[in-house]
UniProtKB/TrEMBL annotation:
Disulfide bonding pattern of the chain: C226-C247, C299-C368, C324-C345
Origin organism lineage: Eukaryota, Metazoa, Chordata, Craniata, Vertebrata
Species this chain originates from: Osmerus mordax
Short name of one Pfam family: Xlink
UniProt superkingdom: Eukaryota
Record key words, sorted: Disulfide bond, Extracellular matrix, Hyaluronic acid, Immunoglobulin domain, Repeat, Secreted, Signal
Keyword Nucleotide-binding (UniProt): no
Annotated GO CC locations: extracellular space; perineuronal net; synapse
Gene it is expressed from: HPLN3
Domain Link positions: 180-275, 280-370
Entry's family note: Belongs to the HAPLN family.
Annotated protein name in UniProt: Hyaluronan and proteoglycan link protein 3
Segment forming the signal sequence: 1-25
GO terms of molecular function: hyaluronic acid binding
Length: 370
């Protein structure tokens, strides 16, 4: 019975829809010819005069914590508004921030690669994003990209491109991780890393080489460091907030001092690393004082691992870890984190206090990560 009714009803409905559509068209009937809306296929080219596809994002910069789910906003709409839904294609692509992963070549060749393409309800994701991205679709025209379990290497410039026939509009959103930049040098002394070694040194401390933008932000927040370090783009720079002799001189205003691109194999400097916010916690382990080997074991016995330098920086900067007790870290350095400067706890500014790399038989407490 119900089936029968539907059969009778559908043609009637279709007629009504056609009628409604032409009424709608008539509303805008100011010289435009809404050919495609009226012939009913609903998805011809929108070449007709006056209808424009708009793609926009309320945020051109999104900061998120590592491991979190992040949304990169992107919306499209037609102007004037259309009454019949159209099938659009959406493509999200990106240029990684750490584009300079090649040990030799500069990163200027960084290209946009695909993250996801979607058409209607079908979509496909690529590379390291496979199975980890989706479109939010919280409202009509919402093509925001949701990335789950944000990785350290997901940062960069994302492009949201909406394609409707010949119309093609896009907008970019920069994704950065909440984190902290710290200078890092080799156990063998200052200016020991070539580019690849600098990359590896940061990775070993649960960090990445900082991008120019990250170092710039750190400088804006007051980082002053008079030793040059590699950045992810293969340049060598250092941040100065108080111009002085020996650090670029007093003729230069405060800012990032750059040596430009250096030879990635033969030139040697320190590194600027970037540590993103942590999933776990860094904590001070109460113990009798331990040599380095014992310290490593103590953290394991406690269900964790000895903390890496990047983890201590992230805990200090992003979680307010403040402790006036020196402890071993994974790279055999001894450090402690101070948020509120006070007497007998180092200089008058907050920071990570560093005793340097010490012989393994020295006895200290330890910072663990779990
Ligand atoms: C992130 O999204 C995934 C599914 O995409 C979900 O299982 C997980 O609970 C989400 N995590 C957070 C922190 O919201
Ligand atoms: C650290 O202490 C252990 C004993 O707890 C000892 O066997 C080891 O030799 C010590 N290591 C160093 C480098 O002193």
């Amino acid at each position: 019975m119900a089936m029968l009714n539907l059969h009778i009803l559908l043609p009637v409905l279709a007629q009504w829809l056609t009628f409604l559509t032409s009424c709608q068209a008539a509303r805008y009937n100011n010289g435009f010819f809404y050919h495609d809306l009226m012939n009913g296929n609903g998805n011809g080219e929108i070449y007709f005069n006056g209808v424009r596809l708009h793609v926009e994002s309320p945020n051109s910069l999104v900061s998120a914590a590592r491991g979190s789910n992040v949304t990169l906003p992107c919306y499209y709409r037609y102007e004037p508004e259309l009454s019949v839904p159209r099938t659009t294609r959406v493509k999200w692509s990106w240029i990684p921030a750490n584009g300079g992963s090649s040990a030799i070549a500069p990163s200027s060749s960084a290209r946009e690669t695909e993250v996801m393409v979607a058409m209607g309800n079908r979509h496909r994701s690529y590379g390291s994003f496979r199975g980890r991205v989706r479109l939010r679709r919280a409202a009509p025209g919402d093509m925001s990209l949701v990335i789950s379990e944000l990785h350290l290497h997901d940062t960069g410039r994302y492009r949201c491109e909406v394609i409707d026939g010949l119309e093609d509009e896009s907008v970019t959103v920069d994704l950065e991780l909440r984190g902290v930049v710290f200078p890092y040098f080799s156990q063998n002394g200052r200016y020991h890393f070539n580019f690849l070694e600098a990359q590896q040194a940061c990775e070993r401390q649960d960090a990445t080489l900082a991008t120019f933008e990250q170092l710039f932000t750190a400088w804006e927040e007051g980082l002053d460091w008079c030793n040059a370090g590699w950045l992810a783009d293969g340049t060598v720079q250092y941040p100065i907030t108080i111009p002085r002799e020996g650090c670029g001189g007093t003729d230069l205003s405060a800012g990032l001092r750059s040596y430009g691109q250096r030879h990635r194999l033969f030139h040697r400097f320190d590194a600027f690393c970037f540590a993103a916010s942590l999933k776990g916690t860094v904590y001070f382990l109460h113990t009798n004082k331990l040599n380095f080997t014992e310290a490593v074991q103590a953290c394991i016995k406690d269900g964790g691992q000895i903390a890496k330098v990047g983890q201590l920086y992230a805990a200090w900067r992003l979680m307010g870890l403040d402790r006036c007790d020196a402890g071993w870290l994974a790279d055999r350095s001894v450090r402690y984190p101070i948020v509120k400067a006070r007497t007998n706890c180092g200089p008058s500014e907050p920071g990570i206090r560093n005793f340097g790399f010490l012989p393994e038989d020295h006895k200290y407490n330890v910072y663990c990560y779990r």
